[in-house]
Amino acid sequence: MLLTAVAKCGGPWRADAQAIRQTRGRYHYYRCRKSDSGATVCAGVAIAMAELDDAVLSAIEETALEPKRLQKMAHALVARAAERNQSLAERQKTLDGERRKAKKQIAELYARVGAGDIAMDQTLKDFIASLQQRIETLTRQAAHIAAERSRPIELLRPERAEEFGMAVKAALRNPENRAFARAYVNTLVSEVTVSDDEIRIKGPKAALIEQAAIYSAKGELVPSFAQQWRTMSDKNANWRLSLSY
Protein backbone atom coordinates (compact mmCIF):
# COMPACT_ATOMS: atom_id res chain seq x y z
CA MET A 1 0.00 0.00 0.00
CA LEU A 2 2.53 2.51 -1.25
CA LEU A 3 0.29 5.56 -1.76
CA THR A 4 -2.54 5.38 0.77
CA ALA A 5 -1.20 8.46 2.60
CA VAL A 6 -1.01 10.69 -0.48
CA ALA A 7 -3.42 9.39 -3.15
CA LYS A 8 -6.75 11.16 -3.45
CA CYS A 9 -9.82 11.44 -5.63
CA GLY A 10 -11.34 14.63 -4.27
CA GLY A 11 -10.64 13.05 -0.89
CA PRO A 12 -8.23 10.49 0.62
CA TRP A 13 -8.11 7.06 -0.95
CA ARG A 14 -7.71 3.70 0.65
CA ALA A 15 -6.31 0.40 -0.56
CA ASP A 16 -9.07 -2.03 -1.43
CA ALA A 17 -8.90 -5.69 -2.42
CA GLN A 18 -11.78 -6.18 -4.80
CA ALA A 19 -13.61 -9.51 -4.59
CA ILE A 20 -12.46 -10.55 -8.07
CA ARG A 21 -10.48 -13.75 -8.07
CA GLN A 22 -8.46 -15.44 -10.76
CA THR A 23 -5.95 -18.23 -10.67
CA ARG A 24 -3.28 -15.91 -9.27
CA GLY A 25 -5.43 -14.44 -6.50
CA ARG A 26 -7.01 -11.04 -5.94
CA TYR A 27 -6.58 -7.83 -7.86
CA HIS A 28 -5.75 -4.92 -5.56
CA TYR A 29 -7.04 -1.41 -6.19
CA TYR A 30 -6.88 2.09 -4.75
CA ARG A 31 -10.42 3.32 -4.20
CA CYS A 32 -11.77 6.62 -2.83
CA ARG A 33 -13.18 6.43 0.69
CA LYS A 34 -15.99 8.76 -0.33
CA SER A 35 -17.32 6.17 -2.74
CA ASP A 36 -18.58 4.30 0.34
CA SER A 37 -21.13 7.10 0.74
CA GLY A 38 -22.56 6.53 -2.73
CA ALA A 39 -22.04 7.88 -6.23
CA THR A 40 -23.70 11.18 -5.31
CA VAL A 41 -20.62 11.96 -3.22
CA CYS A 42 -18.00 10.37 -5.43
CA ALA A 43 -18.23 8.20 -8.52
CA GLY A 44 -15.68 5.94 -6.91
CA VAL A 45 -12.81 6.09 -9.42
CA ALA A 46 -10.60 3.06 -8.82
CA ILE A 47 -7.22 2.21 -10.27
CA ALA A 48 -5.12 -0.95 -10.01
CA MET A 49 -2.62 -0.60 -7.18
CA ALA A 50 0.33 -1.87 -9.23
CA GLU A 51 -0.51 0.51 -12.09
CA LEU A 52 -0.67 3.64 -9.94
CA ASP A 53 2.37 2.66 -7.84
CA ASP A 54 4.45 2.14 -10.97
CA ALA A 55 3.27 5.41 -12.55
CA VAL A 56 4.21 7.43 -9.46
CA LEU A 57 7.56 5.70 -8.98
CA SER A 58 8.41 6.23 -12.65
CA ALA A 59 7.51 9.92 -12.35
CA ILE A 60 9.79 10.32 -9.33
CA GLU A 61 12.62 8.50 -11.07
CA GLU A 62 12.37 10.21 -14.46
CA THR A 63 11.41 13.73 -13.38
CA ALA A 64 11.98 14.58 -9.73
CA LEU A 65 15.32 12.74 -9.51
CA GLU A 66 16.79 14.00 -12.79
CA PRO A 67 20.26 15.33 -11.74
CA LYS A 68 20.09 18.68 -13.55
CA ARG A 69 16.62 19.29 -12.17
CA LEU A 70 17.85 18.53 -8.65
CA GLN A 71 20.70 21.01 -9.01
CA LYS A 72 18.42 23.70 -10.38
CA MET A 73 16.02 23.26 -7.47
CA ALA A 74 18.89 23.36 -4.97
CA HIS A 75 20.21 26.64 -6.40
CA ALA A 76 16.75 28.20 -6.29
CA LEU A 77 16.16 27.11 -2.72
CA VAL A 78 19.51 28.43 -1.54
CA ALA A 79 18.61 31.81 -3.02
CA ARG A 80 15.33 31.73 -1.14
CA ALA A 81 16.69 30.60 2.24
CA ALA A 82 15.23 33.53 4.16
CA GLU A 83 11.78 32.98 2.69
CA ARG A 84 12.06 29.28 3.42
CA ASN A 85 12.86 29.89 7.07
CA GLN A 86 9.87 32.17 7.40
CA SER A 87 7.63 29.54 5.83
CA LEU A 88 9.02 26.92 8.20
CA ALA A 89 8.32 29.15 11.19
CA GLU A 90 4.74 29.64 10.03
CA ARG A 91 4.30 25.92 9.43
CA GLN A 92 5.68 25.12 12.87
CA LYS A 93 3.20 27.56 14.41
CA THR A 94 0.37 25.86 12.49
CA LEU A 95 1.50 22.41 13.65
CA ASP A 96 1.59 23.59 17.26
CA GLY A 97 -1.92 24.96 16.88
CA GLU A 98 -3.20 21.72 15.36
CA ARG A 99 -1.60 19.74 18.16
CA ARG A 100 -3.24 21.91 20.84
CA LYS A 101 -6.59 21.60 19.06
CA ALA A 102 -6.34 17.78 18.96
CA LYS A 103 -5.41 17.61 22.64
CA LYS A 104 -8.33 19.87 23.53
CA GLN A 105 -10.67 17.72 21.47
CA ILE A 106 -9.59 14.58 23.33
CA ALA A 107 -10.03 16.31 26.70
CA GLU A 108 -13.52 17.46 25.74
CA LEU A 109 -14.52 13.98 24.60
CA TYR A 110 -13.37 12.42 27.87
CA ALA A 111 -15.24 15.13 29.77
CA ARG A 112 -18.45 14.32 27.87
CA VAL A 113 -17.98 10.61 28.56
CA GLY A 114 -17.47 11.38 32.23
CA ALA A 115 -20.62 13.50 32.29
CA GLY A 116 -22.61 10.70 30.66
CA ASP A 117 -23.38 12.70 27.51
CA ILE A 118 -21.85 10.08 25.23
CA ALA A 119 -20.82 6.44 25.59
CA MET A 120 -17.28 5.17 25.22
CA ASP A 121 -18.05 2.70 22.44
CA GLN A 122 -15.57 1.22 19.96
CA THR A 123 -16.18 3.97 17.42
CA LEU A 124 -15.28 6.66 19.92
CA LYS A 125 -12.25 4.69 21.12
CA ASP A 126 -11.01 4.43 17.53
CA PHE A 127 -11.56 8.15 16.97
CA ILE A 128 -9.64 9.07 20.12
CA ALA A 129 -6.83 6.71 19.09
CA SER A 130 -6.66 8.44 15.71
CA LEU A 131 -6.42 11.82 17.43
CA GLN A 132 -3.63 10.55 19.68
CA GLN A 133 -1.77 9.23 16.65
CA ARG A 134 -2.26 12.59 14.98
CA ILE A 135 -0.75 14.35 18.00
CA GLU A 136 2.31 12.07 17.88
CA THR A 137 2.74 12.77 14.16
CA LEU A 138 2.40 16.52 14.66
CA THR A 139 4.97 16.38 17.46
CA ARG A 140 7.49 14.62 15.22
CA GLN A 141 6.81 17.05 12.38
CA ALA A 142 7.29 20.07 14.63
CA ALA A 143 10.57 18.66 15.93
CA HIS A 144 11.77 18.05 12.38
CA ILE A 145 10.93 21.58 11.31
CA ALA A 146 12.72 23.01 14.35
CA ALA A 147 15.84 21.15 13.29
CA GLU A 148 15.36 22.11 9.64
CA ARG A 149 15.15 25.81 10.48
CA SER A 150 18.72 25.65 11.78
CA ARG A 151 20.03 23.66 8.81
CA PRO A 152 21.03 25.58 5.68
CA ILE A 153 20.31 24.15 2.23
CA GLU A 154 23.57 23.52 0.44
CA LEU A 155 24.37 23.50 -3.25
CA LEU A 156 24.31 20.02 -4.74
CA ARG A 157 27.31 18.86 -6.73
CA PRO A 158 26.51 17.15 -10.07
CA GLU A 159 28.06 13.84 -9.13
CA ARG A 160 26.24 13.70 -5.81
CA ALA A 161 22.93 14.54 -7.47
CA GLU A 162 23.37 11.63 -9.84
CA GLU A 163 24.40 9.25 -7.05
CA PHE A 164 21.41 10.32 -4.97
CA GLY A 165 19.02 9.69 -7.85
CA MET A 166 20.41 6.21 -8.45
CA ALA A 167 20.26 5.33 -4.74
CA VAL A 168 16.63 6.44 -4.43
CA LYS A 169 15.61 4.54 -7.56
CA ALA A 170 17.16 1.35 -6.19
CA ALA A 171 15.46 1.81 -2.82
CA LEU A 172 12.02 2.56 -4.27
CA ARG A 173 12.10 -0.54 -6.47
CA ASN A 174 13.48 -2.88 -3.80
CA PRO A 175 10.82 -5.60 -3.31
CA GLU A 176 12.45 -6.66 -0.03
CA ASN A 177 11.75 -3.38 1.78
CA ARG A 178 8.41 -1.89 0.77
CA ALA A 179 8.07 -0.15 4.14
CA PHE A 180 11.11 1.98 3.33
CA ALA A 181 9.79 2.70 -0.16
CA ARG A 182 6.47 3.83 1.33
CA ALA A 183 8.20 6.09 3.86
CA TYR A 184 10.36 7.63 1.16
CA VAL A 185 7.45 8.20 -1.20
CA ASN A 186 5.62 9.95 1.64
CA THR A 187 8.67 12.19 2.05
CA LEU A 188 9.04 13.11 -1.62
CA VAL A 189 5.38 13.16 -2.71
CA SER A 190 2.70 15.31 -1.10
CA GLU A 191 -0.27 14.51 -3.30
CA VAL A 192 -1.36 12.14 -6.06
CA THR A 193 -4.72 13.10 -7.54
CA VAL A 194 -6.41 10.61 -9.85
CA SER A 195 -9.27 11.31 -12.23
CA ASP A 196 -10.79 9.25 -15.04
CA ASP A 197 -8.03 10.15 -17.50
CA GLU A 198 -5.20 11.84 -15.61
CA ILE A 199 -2.82 11.38 -12.70
CA ARG A 200 -1.39 14.56 -11.15
CA ILE A 201 1.63 14.21 -8.88
CA LYS A 202 2.99 16.93 -6.60
CA GLY A 203 5.88 17.01 -4.15
CA PRO A 204 7.74 19.60 -2.03
CA LYS A 205 11.01 20.76 -3.59
CA ALA A 206 12.58 21.49 -0.21
CA ALA A 207 11.92 17.96 1.06
CA LEU A 208 13.50 16.51 -2.08
CA ILE A 209 16.59 18.71 -1.82
CA GLU A 210 16.88 18.07 1.90
CA GLN A 211 17.00 14.34 1.23
CA ALA A 212 19.65 14.90 -1.43
CA ALA A 213 21.69 16.97 1.04
CA ILE A 214 21.43 14.26 3.71
CA TYR A 215 22.61 11.68 1.21
CA SER A 216 25.46 13.96 0.09
CA ALA A 217 26.62 14.41 3.68
CA LYS A 218 26.02 10.92 5.09
CA GLY A 219 25.83 8.64 2.06
CA GLU A 220 22.50 7.21 3.22
CA LEU A 221 18.79 7.65 2.58
CA VAL A 222 16.79 8.82 5.57
CA PRO A 223 13.02 9.37 5.16
CA SER A 224 11.75 12.37 7.05
CA PHE A 225 8.58 14.30 7.83
CA ALA A 226 9.48 17.25 5.61
CA GLN A 227 6.54 16.52 3.33
CA GLN A 228 4.15 17.67 6.02
CA TRP A 229 5.05 21.35 5.53
CA ARG A 230 4.11 20.96 1.88
CA THR A 231 1.07 23.24 2.03
CA MET A 232 2.97 26.49 1.43
CA SER A 233 0.94 28.80 -0.78
CA ASP A 234 3.74 29.37 -3.30
CA LYS A 235 3.10 26.93 -6.14
CA ASN A 236 6.81 27.10 -7.01
CA ALA A 237 7.57 25.30 -3.74
CA ASN A 238 6.48 22.04 -5.38
CA TRP A 239 7.59 19.91 -8.28
CA ARG A 240 4.62 18.79 -10.38
CA LEU A 241 3.86 16.27 -13.08
CA SER A 242 0.70 15.24 -14.95
CA LEU A 243 0.28 11.87 -16.62
CA SER A 244 -2.52 11.06 -19.07
CA TYR A 245 -3.77 7.54 -19.64
In short:
The protein contains seven helices and seven strands, in the order E-E-E-E-H-H-H-H-H-H-E-E-H-E. With 245 residues, the protein is α+β, with helices and mostly antiparallel strands.
Fold blueprint:
Elements: E1 7-8, E2 13-22, E3 25-32, E4 46-48, H1 49-64, H2 67-79, H3 81-114, H4 122-149, H5 158-172, H6 178-188, E5 191-194, E6 198-204, H7 205-218, E7 238-244
Helix pairs in contact: 2-5, 2-7, 3-4
Total of helices: 7
Helix and strand run = EEEEHHHHHHEEHE
Content-based structural category: alpha+beta
The biggest beta sheet, please?
4 strands, mixed
Count of extended strands? 7
Which radius of gyration do the C-alpha atoms yield?
20 Å
Give average pLDDT, whole number: 77
Low-confidence stretches: 19-23, 225-234
- Strand content range: 15-25%
Helix content: 40-55%
